[in-house]
Amino acid sequence: MRKIAIHFIILISCSVGFAQVDRSVKPEPGPAPEIKIGDYETFGLKNGLKVIVVENHKLPRVSFSLIIDRDPILEKDKVGYVSMAGDMLRRGTKNRTKDQIDEEIDFIGANLSTGANSIFASSLTKHQEKLLELMTDILYHPVFPEEELEKVKKQTISGIASQKDDPEAIAQNVARVVLYSKDHPYGEIQLEEHVENITREDLMDYYNTYFKPNIAYLAIVGDIRPKNAKKIVNKYFSDWETGEVPEHEYKKPEAPAQNRVALVDRAASVQTVLDLSYPVHLEKGHPDVIRSGVLNQILGGSSASRLFKNIREDKGYTYGAYSSLVSDELTGNFSAGASVRTEVTDSAVVEFISEFKRIRENQVSDEELLLAKNVLIGSFGRSLENPQTVATFAINIERYNLPEDYYNTYVMKVEDVSSTDIQEMAMNYIKPDNLYIIAVGKASVIEEQLKKFGPITHYDAYGNEIDPSKVKLPAGLDADKVITNYIDAIGGKERLMDVNDIRYELSAEVMGNELEMSILKKDPNLMKVEVRMGPNVVSTQVFDGENARMVQMGNEMEPDDKMLERFRIEGHMFPELNYEHLGVRTALVGVENLEGNNAYAVNITYPSGEMVTNYYDASSWYKVRQTQTIESPQGKVSTSTDFSEFKNKDGIVFPYLFKIPMGANMQMNAEVESIEINSGLDNETFEIE
Fold first, then answer.
1. Residue 199: pLDDT above 60?
2. Alpha carbon distance 103, 345 (integer Å)
3. Which residue, 202, 177, 212, is CA-closest to 81?
4. What is the pTM of this model?
């Protein structure tokens, strides 16, 4: 039996008597606490399944973690099907529907989740047989039901759409491509068309190919004896059939020979998202992993680290600056980044590089080193409260051929890291002259700033190289001309001026709930928006030309001055017709590629200084997007509403599909069911009670 013990040796210092303590002398740190993870035993089945049993009898609970140890997969024109297969495993078997699985799991108070290469289940020990019955039903008999697949695909597409204008997501997309290339599984970017390509057969093929016991590990953690574990593992897993599993090899990416800039233009941005990164060859279990982890903690692992203190606290360029140094069996990476004000983009890059050089050239202080160690040791200790973490540690020892005491001695290894080690790790893994500097922001301002750091390549939001000369503003075009072209394209000023009132009826689905929405407008700027779920009114907004009333889920909300201003302007039938006399300022700020088509970005600034950006398609001149930047606890965040599926109604072109953001990774698609023009809406409709 191997030992990874499960207890903390608590070190207690105490003094007896009334001797005076010299508080001017800093006490020496005590010895590293011994953190032990648990006794564990390994055995295997004839089908190749490797089993690890970690005993912990403190609570009458047991967990089962199954890991499929396959190579990463290049998904090509069906990016995302592997993770989708993992999600779908739990959504129905030959014996149970998804609802039945949920009910049976809830009945015994258990947890059961699935992933692309994993199944995790936990329950009270007395329910372990029922838990394994459910777990193995999912393992052996998934059916990947079509109706569930359509739900997952719709949710996935909604998530993709919600992130397409998110600068953080855009930076991640470009980073994946420049670090790994699109011919590497880590460099693939999921698009909506990839999701549409995924079929039930793809998920079945993946499952049938890779879910084999001869490449699998099962970790059992909790209130169980090895003898009992062998009995139930043989009962539930011995019939799992072995199979040949394909292996995949990929070219290892390298850091660039010199610093290179990858620039994505977002003309409406008020911030630049920066990501300074490159591939790192650091495999799981390498002796440098622990030492490099301490290095990264000092450099940018938390709000107490150097990058945060310099770029956030000292310079005030950002809300937060961090770094990560990731080990991986295929290829790891280093990344450091922040969202900074546009005008200090180059200054922020200078500070990042300065910190990279400083940690290479000078040894860190004892105080920094001690703080970093304490943070890592505390985090490690807390992680052991989760049985899934303990299972992962146990599997890692077997999977990556780690020393048997790798996690047992983790704390001691952290404590042994010296300032000399940190400098050595920095010299090996921090590369201030071999960076990909990914910048997502207002290119007209930051491109010139970034030239000093290296050659610039322009990309779109999905990591495709683009020629910036093809997306330049035409000579003589300004905001007034763009808006005039828009008005002409949707019907012309004379036709629009004839409209006295409009009634839109829309339908949408949010998290499985059907919504209905009415938008009513009446000249000059009366407006009412009502959202219903069945017979219930979810929210109401009414503006009578001067005052507004807002009710959300029965709770009345007081509109502030900025909201009232928004009502006064957006309440107009066609706001663009009235910008001049409303005191709205417009400015053409650039051209961006949206969904493969160029669109002109026009900043719309209200009298209060509030600003939105409207995007007008360069070919049709229709308004295809409106973006607003709002303050959040994490800084400024952009949200966008997209307009599409344009149709002519009584001589005026309207969008019939509104894609509206609904928080993180969610989007509501509101479809226009009907539009009525000049139907005779009366003023009473817009009265505020």
1. yes
2. 53
3. 202
4. 0.81
Query: How many other CB atoms sit within 10 Å of the CB of residue 221?
Result: 29
Q: What is the pLDDT of residues 479-501, one digit of tens each?
A: 999 999 999 999 999 999 999 99
Dihedral sign for Cα atoms in the order 673, 675, 681, 684: positive
Is the link from the previous residue into 535 a cis peptide, with omega within 30 of 0? no
Q: Supply 467's token pair.
A: 């020629």
The tally of domains found in the chain comes to 3
In the sheet with 216-222, reading across from the earlier edge strand, the strands are: 40-44, 50-55, 216-222, 61-68, 118-124, 111-115
Which residues constitute the domain of residue 592?
479-686
How far apart are alpha carbons 644 and 642 in whole angstroms?
Answer: 7
For 321-353, what is the HEC assignment?
CEEEEECCCCCEEEEEEEEEEHHHHHHHHHHHH
Query: Does 487 share its domain with 568?
Result: yes
Taking all residues of the chain, what is their mean pLDDT, rounded to a whole number? 90
| Nearest-angstrom CA–CA distance, 454 and 447 | 11
Contact in structure between 348 and 360 (CB atoms under 8 Å): no
What are the backbone dihedrals phi and psi of residue 366, each rounded to the nearest 5 degrees, phi first? -60, -35
Work out the pLDDT band at 161, boundaries 50, 70, 90: confident
Segment 467-480, tens digit of pLDDT? 887 778 899 999 99
Same domain, 447 and 524: no
pLDDT of 38 reads: 63
How far is the CA of 27 from the CAs of 21, 374, 412, in angstroms? 10, 15, 19
